[in-house]
Amino acid sequence: FGAYLGPEHGKLLFRGELNSDLYGPLQTEYEKGKLAGTDVWIHKDRMSGIWGRNTPLEEHLTKHNIKTLFWSGVNADQCVLGSVVDAYSLGYDIVAVEDTIATTSPTGAKENLMYNSIRVGHFLCRSQNAADSSLCRAMAL
Predict the structure, then answer these.
(1) Range of the domain at 108
(2) Which of 26, 35, 40, 55 could disulfide-link 22, Cβ–Cβ 3.0 to 4.6 Å?
(3) Isochorismatase-like domain: from which residue to which, for each copy (predicted)?
């Protein structure tokens, strides 16, 4: 972290650097949502985005009475997994959006998150089905 990637990218994973923007079209959509007041950007400084009480994300969720979280991102077995486990431990309902989660880790890393997402009281769905909870899969043990 912090390695200089050249003038076209800046420092690796540093707030405000070019490489910390969202991927092309997603950045554009975020900017539109920000102007409309529907999207917020909450920075994190650990693998998990919600590693404990009173983190910026947890404060935002509490303030807006949000209890169900739809997760996407990279890397599945690092940041996404850490965030999912921590959010679940804090009492949030979890929905892993399978086709919006990726990883650069070896085979099996993402599959492990998907496997556990339907066996630990979480839900698993695909992005086109996320708005219709009846199309999400869940298994309670």
Answers:
(1) 47-138
(2) 26
(3) 38-112
